[in-house]
Amino acid sequence: METGQGGSGPVARATYHYYAPGYETSSLYCADQFNKFLPVSSDHWLLQYPWTAYCNDDGLGPMSQDKCGKCLKVTNTATGQSVKTRVVDMCGQGGVDMDPLGFNAIDGDGQGKATGDMAVRLDWC
Questions:
Q1: Better-scored residue on pLDDT, 55 or 109
Q2: Cα–Cα dist 32/100, whole Å
Q3: Cα separation, 26 vs 101, whole angstroms
Q4: Rg of the chain (C-alpha set)
Q5: Of 31, 52, 57, 102, which has the fewest beta carbons less than 10 angstroms from its beta carbon?
Q6: Which of 15-19, 59-63, 74-78, 100-104 has the lowest mean pLDDT?
Q7: How many structural domains comprise the chain?
Q8: How far, in Å, CA of 103 to CA of 49, rounded?
């Protein structure tokens, strides 16, 4: 996690989503991209960052297979805290749907967990 006024990208909404235990990829939008790497060890690049679903059509562009596996920096606009995440899925709410490991890492004031979402800035790593 990083702190400070990071992130210059578009403002979006972040929510959180519990991914399958062991980070199973079969039900993800990016499954076809990732299944060729299975099984993965704990130090594999796919597990380097917390996972996120991406759906920020109006910000960094629509979700597509070429975004699968990309690093996405997510910055909480209220706290300035940021975290790098791995795009593995698509969502439908106009922002990102983050694994709780990433969501909680930037929820320094606890408001995200209290309300279920937070305003964030998005930038490709």
A1: 109
A2: 24
A3: 20
A4: 14
A5: 57
A6: 59-63
A7: 1
A8: 12
76: CATH? 2.40.40.10
Which pLDDT tens digit goes with each residue over 6-31? 556 778 999 998 876 566 666 788 87
- Adjacent-strand bridge partners of 82: 2, 75
Whether 1 is covered by a domain: the verdict is no
Cα distances (Å, whole numbers) of residue 122 to 5, 64, 73, 87: 13, 16, 6, 12
- Domain residue limits at 58: 11-124
Query: Is residue 63 in a domain?
Result: yes
DSSP assignment of 50-119 equals -EEEE--TTTT----GGGTT-EEEEEETTT--EEEEEEEEE-SSSSEEE-HHHHHHT-TTSHHHHHS-EE
Fill in the DSSP letter of residue 39: S
In a domain, 2, yes or no: no
Per-residue CA distances from 53 to 5, 19, 109 (Å)? 23, 10, 23
SS3 123: strand
Mean of the per-residue pLDDT values of the chain: 84
